[in-house]
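Example (one chain per record):
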Amino acid sequence: MQRIQPGLERHLHNVAATRQIEALATATLPLHALMQRAGLVVAKLALAVAPHAHRIWIACGPGNNGGDGLEAAIHLHHWGKEAIVTWLGQPDRAPPDALAAYQRAVSAGVAFSTQVPTNIQLCIDALLGIGAHLGEPNADMGSWIDQMNGSNVPILAVDVPSGLDADTGQITQRHINATHTLSLLTLKPGLFTAHGRDASGTVWLDDLQVAPNMLKRIGASARLLAQPAPAHRTHASHKGIFGDVAVIGGAPGMTGAALLAANAALHAGAGRVFVGLLDGGSLSVDMTQPELMFRSVDSLDFNTKTVVCGCGGGDAVASVIPKALLASSAMVLDADALNSIAGDVALQKLLVARINRGAATVMTPHPLEAARLLNCTSNQVQQDRLGAATRLAQRFACTVVLKGSGTVIAAPDQLTAINPTGNARLATAGTGDVLAGMIGSKLAAGASAFQAACDAVYQHGQIADSWPVTSILTASKLASQPPTRSSINLIDSCLRLFNKG
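Predicted structure:
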């Protein structure tokens, strides 16, 4: 069992793939073995996250997720805990594994109740797991969810918090807000994007001793980003090696957006950064960042520069986009550049044609901008973030960064990635401009579009994760801060002790 932290790449499997793996594993194991293994690891994690809890409520649904909870209750009972089970199943309707777990629990003397127990110190949510469909839970289950959430004690969700879609991260109105989630057999994409990170708390994984080669037989649906390798610069380096970035944006009243992107590109390592403002040339120098070089847009040679286009561009950026799409070999399209492309079929054709000459392109939409590009609503984008990002990448033949909680990075012929870093400190004006500049810097240094997007998105979120809780993170501070590594949770040590037992 392992706690999932930012840093290592992890493969993610959707519900369909997980069920295939489960079927393969079940066929090679003794009867009921997989559920019994699941129950044991749930019970171990319960003791690790709440070692002093004695009175434990295990809420079990009618399916196999409930069976996992029943198996966990048996172990907790044997270990001297007061494990109280509420079960929505019926013996004559339960799946075979869940029925066997119920019979074992009854024989072991586990306490069953028709009422929610009081004075509990830990809740275990074994109601739905990956069996959830995004219809609202029935009256009894909904009531139990409300009472768990209102219990003010730790909640351990088995596999997936009830009410959370394991594929998309969407939630029902009544859903579990877990403090810990133990994902069984595989990690699911929905735990890491949309509402998944809020609902899941700390995520753990146990592969239930299923052989790695069996997991590899079923392809992953997505992956969690790994921490980028540390940048290394040789002593003989010069600024030309790290490339030139040209930031095009800053229409009247929005100059700050272009400056934020330019500052971010500079601090992320670009050799030189040029700024082409669309406000008539209000600045010739930025005294707070004199390294930036201001040029008229018409004088900039896009053939030799990575172009970051759209940050604060307003309507004025539309006239620059055709030249940039045709001339630049590497480009980041953000904000108003995306809005212009969404409403112009001719620009869309120029964008798609870039792939034919090997030009690198990264689009960085937030959900509303993605909706405009896909001709749908932002709610529809959020209902399936991985699907929306993949459709954009295929439609426009480029790398797409769909921003939000659990940012999704998609590209043709690449396994879609979800970013595990970042938090609500990034929910402030200008942080998207900073990300565009960071991506531009990595493109200028020679990274592929997909790699540049993945590395910049990870580091962008990592800065927010390492930011002091007592200090406000603004976009201008974000642009100039290096990422740091996160710390290790002490629960890992406690869990290792249980695994040795």
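Caption: The radius of gyration is 25 Å.
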